[in-house]
Specification:
Blueprint (H helix, E strand, L loop, with lengths): L26 H19 L4 E6 L1 H10 L5 E7 L15 H10 L3 H13 L3 H8 L3 H7 L4 H7 L7 H4 L6 E6 L4 H13 L3 E6 L6 H4 L1 H12 L3
Parallel strand pairs: 1-2, 2-3, 3-4
């Protein structure tokens, strides 16, 4: 829907799609990757900057990248905010269960455990998601789950680090999402220099799939602000 009125570039992050990977991993490398893409696109387009929208972990990468380059003009984050100390997205035992499934080569089981435990998807929602063409790609990238869950709990992805972002930020939130998403969103909003929070009514962690029109309308209104 964005591509109807805007020029859109989709990025395959490390270990996903057609992008390469490396043995060593740190979320800081994701920040650097995205900052480099923003720099390159702005130069190629002859534009002063580009806007970046990220979902979940991708939103956190967008925030981190905006600290590294002046070429990122605005940032949209859908439920990608860090949570305060003492709050966690991860139910007890979830990481161990995902690790065990991956060790058995059961990528689909690992992804299902992640989506039900952290994202909060119901069995009905999971069944619907399995019919989505993106499911196969998500299963193929299941090996990235553990490293990203661990990295998002580190200092480089914390409220203290990402709260230093100074470009305008739209923080999107689903009204039916698990409480940690709301807690993190509100905590980050209070730290950012220029932030607004928009709640997508009736949506959970995947409004870009389930409430695409409302998602696009909120993002376009933000990007078009003077």
């Amino acid at each position: 829907m964005f591509a109807v009125s805007r020029r859109v570039f989709a990025i395959d992050r490390r270990g996903r799609g057609q992008s390469g990977d490396a043995a060593a991993y740190a979320i800081e490398r994701e920040y650097e990757d995205l900052a480099a893409v923003a720099d390159g696109l702005a130069a190629d387009l002859g534009a002063p900057g580009v806007d970046v929208a990220g979902h979940s972990y991708g939103g956190r990468c967008a925030l981190g990248a905006s600290l590294l380059t002046p070429r990122i003009r605005r940032v949209v984050v859908y439920e990608g905010a860090p949570v305060p100390q003492g709050v966690s997205y991860r139910p007890e035992g979830l990481v161990d269960s995902v690790r065990a499934a991956l060790a058995r080569g059961a990528n689909e089981e690992a992804l299902t455990q992640f989506l039900s435990g952290i994202v909060g998807m119901s069995e009905a929602e999971l069944d619907a998601y399995r019919t989505n063409p993106v499911w196969t790609a998500r299963v193929a990238a299941a090996h990235t789950i553990l490293r990203e869950v661990e990295a998002e709990a580190g200092p480089a992805a914390s409220l203290e680090a990402l709260g230093r972002v100074r470009v305008p930020v739209l923080l999107l939130l689903g009204s039916t999402s698990r409480s940690p998403f709301r807690i993190g969103t509100d905590a980050l909003a209070t730290r950012l220099a220029d932030a607004r929070v928009h709640v997508v009514t009736g949506a959970a962690h995947a409004a870009h799939h389930t409430h695409a029109r409302e998602f696009v309308e909120a993002v376009e209104a933000f990007l078009d602000e003077p």
